[in-house]
Amino acid sequence: MIEFRGVTKQFPDGTRAVRDFSLVIPARRTTVFVGSSGCGKTTLLRMINRMVEPTAGVIEIDGDDIAARSAVALRRSIGYVMQNSGLLPHLTVEDNIATVPVLQGMKKKDARGRARELMHTVGLDAQMARRYPSQLSGGQQQRVGVARGLAADPNILLMDEPFGAVDPIVRAELQQELIRLQSEIGKTIVFVTHDIDEAFLLGDQVVLLQIGAQIAQVGSPSEIIEDPASEFVSTFIGAERGRRALHLKQTARGTVVVDAQGRTQGALAQDGASG
């Protein structure tokens, strides 16, 4: 479990990115910070592994104040996946994934074996192990980034808009891959996005933020959609524009789901029953 208590971050230029933020992030669930650019969501994420130090307040992991831990040791114990993968261009795929385990003292041979296991876990062909990042597609690079984040078997995985730089088709594939992975590995994932649909798809707990990392609403996707806490929330999730007002429509091929503008959003699954 991760807990923020009264956390504030003010940068030297006077910008207060986070103001008196408090939140409990449950263990082995996916919590998504969502909001417009500049609302403080990435600052919150980076304070968890002390890439950014808070000006005031306390952050605890399982009841222990992270300020009492070595920043380097803390970062090596937490997985981190960023938007542009952040792979080291001079290292092969397997050596990129093996970086943190090697730094933690694992023998290179064993770390490479772990890397190949993780390549399979995230859906990468073993033949890619000796390739370099420049030889991979954007989606493949992001899969390597996820594998590297998992390499040290961390309890916590931080993901900073990891799918924002890939095309919509690849993004959808990576989202489904993350859902599959989380069902298998059960990590505490903190995910940052500005896309409310991505937040609702991935999050067990969604934290909708305003400027200064002020919480507009926190809850499950269903709770937020069914009962927006304010006009700001309604507008952000698209409720006021009718985007969330869906209804059923019968067609020659079956029942489809249509939005307020009459655009088809999906089809009802058929159970295959007959007779």
Structure description:
The protein is α/β, with parallel strands linked by helices and 275 residues long. Helix content is 33%, strand content 27%. It contains nine helices and 13 strands. It has helices at 41-48, 71-76, 93-103, 108-121, 138-150, 168-185, 196-202, 221-226, 231-237, and strands at 2-10, 16-25, 30-34, 56-61, 64-65, 78-81, 156-160, 188-193, 205-210, 214-219, 247-251, 254-258, 264-267. The strands form three sheets. A six-stranded mixed sheet has the order 6-7-8-3-9-10, sandwiched between helices. Strands 2-1-4-5 form a four-stranded antiparallel sheet, covered by helices on one side. Strands 11-12-13 form a three-stranded antiparallel sheet, with no helix packed on it. Helix 3 (93-103) packs across helix 4 (108-121), helix 3 packs parallel to helix 5 and helix 4 (108-121) crosses helix 5 (138-150). The chain is globular, with a radius of gyration of 21 Å. The termini are far apart.
Task: List the main descriptive attributes of the protein structure presented here.
275 residues, 13 strands, six-stranded mixed beta sheet, alpha/beta, 33% helix, 9 helices, four-stranded antiparallel beta sheet
Describe the secondary structure blueprint for this structure.
Blueprint (H helix, E strand, L loop, with lengths): L1 E9 L5 E10 L4 E5 L6 H8 L7 E6 L2 E2 L5 H6 L1 E4 L11 H11 L4 H14 L16 H13 L5 E5 L7 H18 L2 E6 L2 H7 L2 E6 L3 E6 L1 H6 L4 H7 L9 E5 L2 E5 L5 E4 L8
Parallel strand pairs: 3-8, 3-9, 6-7, 7-8
Antiparallel strand pairs: 1-2, 1-4, 4-5, 9-10, 11-12, 12-13
